[in-house]
Write a structure and sequence with these properties.
F-box_AtFBL13-like; 23 strands; about 25% helix; F-box_SCFL_complex_component; F-box domain-containing protein; F-box_dom; 14 helices; alpha/beta; 13-stranded parallel β-sheet
């Protein structure tokens, strides 16, 4: 069959016909390593990766060759140092680092100028390093014969010099190790700050290039964050995981990052006793945040709208101050709070009394309250409340108190897990009530989330029905055992 005449052929849309800005946006959804690799596909694309407004450096990109964590860290360091050196000086929108601080890390090229056989150990001639090598087959991608490309392409003579360099005594000793003979590397005795130096340098690069979002997710050993470089009029969101935040961190954020609104800290060690900010609107402490062990911490944020405080560790509950703007809070008081008493609970809840949405899970030692129900403030704005099984123990004491203190409540969620113990007893807040009745005139729904076989469910249903909540407002949702 003959081809149709050219005038009748439909135009073929080609990705190379798209504007550079759209192509950069497409590349920004990839990790930085993949973005560089994909730019090898087309001569027109070869420099696009240099101006992508998002950096996503992921150490797991380098673990597909059977390398150890230490070796992957070396490869990531080498990649990032060359990548940032070659990148165009254009503003960033987002910087994401998925990192691993290892206990013993082989030296990189910049850390050992004496010349070890790193290139042979880590196979720099494979694809993951090809984009930064001066190779004839990939010359169209990275090597232009001008001075601009010199920083990212090493001379053939230099490569040969590195390859022919004799092994030093330390490397020879490592090579004799039966377990690591094929992947041995120089192990440097760095102190904790030196191990974090590369990551801190990359974070400073992101701040200097106007990144509005910075995400640093670390594994293995904690990252010693150098907060001295946190000076930016553009940073709006900071997400840190497994980092040590030295004294002065929050003061530096306050003075150096006046636009910061979102802060998330996961599995971080906080050395400051006061977490203070005049700009934060969202503070998320989702899990395993460690406050100073010898002092009660204070959280003060007058513009804060949303707070998550879950499973954090400290000698006592933090003091919450200046929370007048707070609208929603997710709270889990776990066994990691070493000492807790009625005044701590009272001050904590009082600071949350203006919220519209509250999830409150008490999972610490059993606590007995005096003075009837005066320990709990009136939640005058609360419309959405979530409580766990701790509130149904001791004849529903805590649940009744919350219902009595929430006159505008519309949606109640009860998450029922099978009873468990903390310090030899079921976690609960207990006490005596002079008046057990409650009125939920605006209540629209009660959702009970529980396992398929839950021993608490029948008595909770009976309690709700006896309290005047009609069956049509009660929904039961099954979940897996935790």
């Amino acid at each position: 069959m003959a081809d149709p005449p050219a005038s009748r052929r439909r135009p073929v849309a080609r990705i190379n016909d798209l504007p550079d800005d759209i192509l950069r946006n497409v590349l920004s959804f990839l990790s930085s390593r993949d973005a560089v690799r994909d730019c090898m596909l087309s001569r027109r694309w070869r420099d696009l990766w240099k101006s992508v407004p998002r950096i996503d450096a992921d150490i797991t990109d380098f673990d597909d060759q059977g390398y150890s964590d230490e070796q992957c860290e070396v490869l990531l360091k080498r990649f990032m140092n060359r990548f940032l050196e070659a990148r165009d000086p254009v503003p960033l929108q987002e910087f994401c680092l998925w990192y691993s601080v290892c206990k013993d890390v082989p030296k990189t090229e910049s850390e050992d100028a004496s010349g070890d056989d790193e290139d042979a150990q880590f196979a720099e001639d494979d694809d993951e390093e090809a984009q930064f090598e001066e190779d004839d087959d990939e010359d169209a991608q990275f090597a232009e014969d001008d001075d601009e490309e010199a920083p990212i392409a090493e001379d053939d003579d230099e490569e040969a010099q590195l390859a022919d360099a004799p092994e030093d005594d330390e490397e020879a000793q490592l090579a004799d190790d039966e377990d690591e003979q094929d992947k041995s590397a120089d192990v440097s005795e760095e102190d904790e700050q030196d191990k974090s130096a590369a990551a801190n340098e990359w974070i400073r690069y992101a701040l200097k290039h106007n990144a509005s979002v910075i995400v640093v997710v670390n594994r293995l050993y904690a990252l010693n964050l150098d907060h001295a470089g946190f000076t930016s009029n553009y940073l709006k969101s900071l997400n840190l995981s497994s980092a040590i935040l030295m004294q002065g961190f929050f003061e530096q954020l306050q003075s150096g990052c006046p636009k910061l609104k979102h802060l998330s800290l996961y599995d971080c060690v906080i050395m400051d006793t006061e977490v203070s900010s005049q700009t934060l609107e969202v503070l998320t402490l989702p899990d395993q945040v460690h406050f100073p062990p010898d002092h009660q911490a204070t959280i003060s944020a007058p513009r804060l709208i949303s707070l998550a405080f879950n499973n954090s560790e400290g000698p006592r509950l933090p003091l919450l101050r200046n929370m007048a703007s707070l609208e929603e809070a997710w709270i889990q008081i776990s066994e990691n709070i070493k000492a807790i008493d009625a005044p701590d609970i009272t001050q904590f809840l009082d600071s949350l009394s203006r919220v519209r949405r509250l999830s409150f899970n008490y999972d610490n030692r059993r606590l007995t309250m005096e003075n009837n129900c005066q320990w709990c403030p009136t939640f005058s704005n609360l419309t959405d409340l979530t409580l766990d099984e701790w509130c149904v123990h001791e004849d529903f004491y805590a649940l009744i108190v919350f219902l009595q203190k929430s006159p505008k409540l519309k949606d109640l969620t009860l998450i029922l897990n099978e009873p468990h113990q903390r310090f030899g007893e079921e976690p609960a807040i207990i006490g005596a009530l002079e008046e057990r009745s409650f009125a939920c005139n605006q209540l629209e729904s009660v959702e009970i989330i529980c396992p398929s076989e839950c021993s608490l469910l029948p008595k909770v249903q009976t309690f709700l029905l006896d309290g005047g909540i009609t069956l049509d407002k009660i929904r039961i949702k099954q979940k897996q055992h935790r």
